[in-house]
Design a protein that fits this description.
Distance between the termini: 50 Å
Order of helices and strands: HEEEEHEEEEHHHEHHHHHH
């Protein structure tokens, strides 16, 4: 479903209010107030039957559906804090912590934390009780006690092995699902599947406004410095010489005026960027100094520089530029 283009914030808010009245779900982290450097963007997400499961005659959004909504909302995970938290001494137990945040209208990311643990001994007992309660159903009532016992033990062993093989994945998805439900405001369960499937979810996220004149000016200054760094100062345009007849009529030593504002340093400009832009700069710098960034990202357990924490991105920038 296509989202119309909006001329202003008021028109966007009116559209969201209209869709909410029609039954759509609105995910909006902040009020649509005018901001200096970040502007709201609306995306429409449609979930299908594969993104929902039934539990106790009610319907819950699966982790796959929550991930779709989280990606549309621009959820960012803190890689240093999103990790396994148990000591790995017990093969039947795992715990995982997830810390993620969403950008609000002031440009800041407000993280939230959730933990999830998986005790396979308890789960094995729950699986056993579940199968034993099926003794009298139509598929098992004609079996002898020995046949049913062998069948139940086979199913229990099979299910427990599957849980053990995927225990870390299950713990990670469980922790992240709790964070996503919290920051996106998704209900834990729905009475009717039609409230979830084939109904639009309108997600509002805030992105850097490249049409803002201050942002444009900042990017131009960075581009000029990057060109000078790549090709040398001679690449910058030279000023034309002043003709003699004109120079005689110009006061070349005027009275000193107020000092112009100093341009921010490249490090200050780097700090002002969002995570995605900082990641692009780090990739360019690592290529310039021939640093093995792939190995660094692998050791940091992330796939791209923008997934590093804010502190690590700045430390990595300082490391790459320390020779400048």
């Amino acid at each position: 479903m296509n989202v119309p283009e909006f001329k202003n914030i008021e028109e966007m808010q009116a559209f969201l209010d209209q869709e909410k009245t029609a039954g759509a779900t609105i995910i909006q982290p902040s009020d649509l107030t005018p901001v200096s450097y970040y502007r709201p963007v609306v995306e429409c997400v449609m979930l299908d039957a594969d993104d929902v499961y039934c539990a106790q005659k009610k319907f819950r959004v699966k982790y796959s559906g929550l991930t779709k909504l989280g990606n549309a909302a621009g959820v960012e995970w803190l890689p240093d804090d999103t990790c396994r938290t148990d000591n790995r001494s017990d093969k039947m137990y795992v715990s995982f912590r997830a810390v993620g945040g969403i950008r609000k209208n002031d440009g800041r990311i407000y993280p939230m934390k959730a933990e999830y643990d998986l005790d396979l001994e308890i789960i094995a007992e729950e699986i056993r009780d579940s199968y034993m309660n099926k003794r009298d159903d139509k598929y098992n009532k004609n079996k002898s006690d020995k046949e049913f016992s062998e069948y139940a033990e086979f199913c229990i062993k099979r299910d427990v092995i599957q849980k053990r093989k995927r225990k870390l994945t299950l713990a990670e998805s469980g922790a992240k699902a709790r964070v996503l439900r919290s920051i996106l405001g998704i209900k834990s369960q729905y009475e009717n599947i039609n409230l979830v499937v084939n109904m639009p979810f309108y997600v509002v996220r805030f992105v850097l406004d490249h049409n803002n004149p201050d942002i444009k000016s900042l990017f131009l200054r960075v581009a000029e410095r990057s060109m000078a760094g790549l090709y040398g100062e001679q690449s910058t345009p030279k000023t034309l010489p002043i003709p003699n007849d004109v120079a005689e009529t110009i006061d070349l030593d005027p009275e000193p005026g107020p000092e112009p504002d100093e341009l921010p340093t490249e490090r200050e400009q780097f700090i002002a960027y969002d995570a995605h832009t900082q990641g692009s700069i780090l990739l360019q710098l690592s290529g310039k100094v021939e640093y093995d960034i792939d190995n660094f990202l692998k050791q940091s357990k992330v796939s791209s520089p923008d997934q590093l924490s804010e502190t690590k991105r700045l430390q990595f920038y300082d490391f790459l530029t320390e020779g400048d």
